[in-house]
Specification:
The complex is a heterodimer of chains A (251) and B (423). Chain A is mostly helical and 251 residues long. Chain A contains 8 helices and 4 strands; from the N terminus they run αααββαααββαα. Helices cover 39% and strands 5% of the residues of chain A. In chain A, the strands form 2 sheets. Chain A has a two-stranded antiparallel ribbon. In chain A, α2 (43-55) crosses α7 (199-214) and α6 runs antiparallel to α7. Chain A is globular and about 80 Å long. Chain B has a single domain (46-417), classed as Cytochrome Bc1 Complex, Chain C (Up-down Bundle), CATH 1.20.810. A two-stranded antiparallel sheet of chain B has the order 1-2. In chain B, α3 runs antiparallel to α9 (195-226) and α4 (83-92) packs across α5. The longest helix of chain B is centred in the middle third of the chain and has 32 residues, at 195-226. Chain B is globular, with a radius of gyration of 24 Å. Classes of the chains: A mainly alpha (251), B mainly alpha (423). At the A-B interface, α1 and α8 of A face α4, α5 and α10 of B.
């Protein structure tokens, strides 16, 4: 079945498709702030990651399930979030004359995708479709580690690897050949907080941002989870005591 | 309350209700009905161990699925273009939508875990034997409906695994001779897996949950006729063998239920996606087949049996037979002794079967290539060998250990032995 599936993938004429599955390198392990039962997002890193996303990733990748209003969750002020939204034009309408019109984005809008549709995205990217990044953290095995490893894993192909036209070598990508060229270069973005924008730093920051984008409720989930667990463990203890008491005279 | 407050004194008494409750009871005797079902007037073998919690737990799991499902259904959009996005809206914009969805998804997994323990407890203690064959059948029908319901539910988010899982499974029906092709078209409601199928699955997923609930009531009804089996597998001989369900087993079930909730909460709050496939967070794409198409963990053993036969029709028959053979177990098992405690050889075979099912699960998750194929075929063959050959033969050849006279004497002896051990 797997061979058949790989065959179908080959036939699908999608350059971004895995050419051979299951051979991707094991991602690098990173101790993310959101790992573990008490984990939460590093808001400063996520905000830097937003800059990386907007300046670099957003050229090709959409983030269609995240709204501009959500940005206040990682510490942007409402005005800052409005400013991010206003930097993108949204098609709205029809107006009273029946025509569609462009207006600046607002807090209620979702992130404006870089291309109007998949065909336009493919046309601009040599036939490859850059995937939406809203859920990337959950849509790949190893989640954050995979995103970070992929972004820092671009390298020259080994001598024995025959590269297809327009492809870049990356051992962490299934099939080792991706249609995405290495997106990050040292100093590519300017961080306002003075953090040096190395490739490694930008990869970590944008991974924080994408993890938040995919699972914005993670901090709430961990916080409620702690109360629920304490409550349930106490309840279980009490119920066990009651059970012992009720059964006591029978033993 | 002296030591002489023996449980059996409480049994077979009517609730004497006055006031409003009495007024209701006179017109609708619901309180006595409850009392006879799960109250002080339902005699239960006093030696039940914690494995007997799993029936009640399955009921709780079903209720959780229905309640969370009703909330999810009121925000979900059953269209090819809208389904995936509506699930994301539930996760992001609906108040506590993420909580309802994670409880529903992980609750389904735990529901299967509970039902599988319940089923294997049944196999170990021979609960399916006379006179509980229909009770066993009702349970198996519930399991069948659970499998169908869970599969349909997994299709609803319309991710990659949803779409391709639906494609693989519905295509299986095409293997049926003569009517196969027409049947597949009927299931799809068109010429491919698409909107008609999605809407149909949504409707049936919702409906079947309540069919399962209704069958669970019938299952409990049948249970109450001959009452619970017990770890000794011998019949209740008299009042000294039993305890009233309430408070003894209500409190025991409540304690077991709290442990279940701890496990569910740990999954929901700390690893909500651990049991799912990452691919299902990619929207369905009919042009791109995932590298691995795998079902949820609870269907992996069946998936392994399906793939063990190289022929499509043969695989489908094996899959159906793997489930249907369970219906014949009360007659395939030729031993009159119920509990494996008194069956030295069957006891070993039981654990081999458990190991075999785990091997099948592992094979179901592995790619169908190389050594995995051979292991899968051997494990599938053993599954059928257990039920069709070993079960009937062992029942005839095995000499069971002597059964205790009654539950009460066995319990007393066990207590005496334990007290002696302490001294």
């Amino acid at each position: 079945m797997r061979i058949a599936a790989a065959g179908l993938a080959l036939l699908s004429l999608l350059p971004a498709t895995a050419l051979a599955a299951g051979d991707a390198a094991e991602p690098k392990k990173v101790d993310w702030t959101f790992n573990g039962p008490f984990g939460t997002f590093d808001h400063a890193a996520a905000r830097r990651g937003l800059v990386v996303y907007l300046d670099v990733c957003a050229m090709c990748h959409a983030l269609r399930y995240v709204a501009y209003r959500n940005l206040t969750e990682i510490g942007l002020t409402e005005d800052q979030a409005k400013a991010v939204a206003a930097g993108h034009d949204v098609t709205d309408g029809p107006d009273e004359t029946g025509a569609m019109f462009k207006r600046p984005g607002g807090l209620a809008d979702r992130f404006v995708p870089p291309f109007p549709n998949d065909n336009a995205a493919r046309f601009a990217n040599g036939g490859a479709l850059p995937p939406d990044l809203s859920l990337m953290y959950k849509a790949r095995a190893h989640g954050a580690d995979y995103i970070y490893s992929l972004l820092t894993g671009f390298q020259d192909p080994p001598a024995d690897v025959q590269m297809a036209a327009g492809m870049t070598y990356n051992p962490y990508f299934p099939g080792h050949q991706t249609a995405m060229p290495a997106p990050l270069l040292d100093g590519l973005v300017a961080y306002e907080d003075g953090t040096e924008a190395t490739v490694d730093q930008m990869a970590r920051d944008v991974t924080q941002f994408l993890a938040w984008a995919a699972e914005p409720n993670l901090p709430t989930r961990h916080r409620i989870g702690l109360s629920v667990m304490i409550y349930l463990i106490l309840l279980a203890g009490l119920l066990y005591a009651v059970k012992r008491r009720v059964w006591a005279h029978l033993h | 309350m002296s030591g002489g407050h023996e449980s059996n004194d409480d049994l077979h008494h009517e609730l004497k209700l006055r006031g409003v409750l009495g007024w209701i009871e006179y017109r609708l005797p619901i309180f006595n009905w409850i009392n006879n079902a799960v109250g002080t007037n339902y005699p239960t073998p006093k030696n039940l161990n914690y494995f007997w919690n799993f029936g009640a737990l399955a009921g709780v799991a079903l209720v959780i699925q229905i309640l969370t499902g009703i909330v999810l259904a009121s925000h979900y959009v059953p269209t090819v273009d809208g389904a995936f996005a509506s699930v994301e809206r539930i996760m992001r914009d609906v108040n506590y939508g993420w909580l309802f969805r994670y409880v529903h998804a992980n609750g389904a997994s735990l529901f299967f875990a509970i039902v599988y323990v319940h089923l294997f407890r049944n196999l170990y203690y021979g609960s399916y034997k006379y006179p509980r064959e229909l009770l066993w059948w009702l349970g198996l029908i519930i399991l069948l409906l659970m499998i169908i319901t869970a599969f349909m539910g997994y299709v609803l988010p319309w991710g990659q695994m949803s779409y391709w899982g639906a494609t693989v499974i519905t295509n299986l029906f095409g293997a049926i001779p003569i009517i196969g092709d027409e049947l597949v078209l009927w299931l799809w409601g068109g010429y491919s897996v698409g909107e008609a199928l999605l809407r149909g699955f949504y409707s049936l997923h919702y409906l079947l949950a309540f069919v399962i609930a209704a069958l669970a009531v019938v299952h409990i009804w049948a249970l109450h006729v001959h009452r619970s089996n017990n770890p000794l597998g011998i019949d209740i001989k008299g009042p000294q063998d039993v305890l009233p369900f309430h408070p003894y087993f209500t409190v025991k079930d409540l304690f077991g239920g709290s442990i279940y909730l701890i496990i569910l909460a740990a999954l929901v709050f700390y690893m909500p996606n651990a049991l799912g496939e990452a691919d299902n967070y990619i929207p369905a794409n009919p042009l791109q087949t995932p590298a691995h198409i795998v079902p949820e963990w609870y269907l992996l053993p069946f998936y392994a049996i399906l793939r063990a036969i190289p022929d499509k029709l043969g695989g489908v028959i094996a899959l159906a037979a793997a489930l249907l053979v369970l219906f014949a177990v009360p007659w395939l098992d030729t031993s009159k002794v119920r509990s494996a405690r008194f069956r030295p050889i069957y006891k070993q075979l039981f654990w081999v079967l458990v190991a075999d099912v785990f091997v099948l699960g592992w094979i179901g998750a592995s790619p169908a290539e190389g050594i995995y194929i051979t292991i899968g075929q051997l494990a599938s063959a053993y599954y059928f060998l257990h039920f069709l050959v070993l079960l009937p033969v062992v029942g005839k050849l095995e000499s069971p250990r002597p059964l205790p006279d009654s539950i009460a004497t066995a319990v007393l002896e066990a207590n005496r032995a334990r007290a002696g051990g302490r001294r």
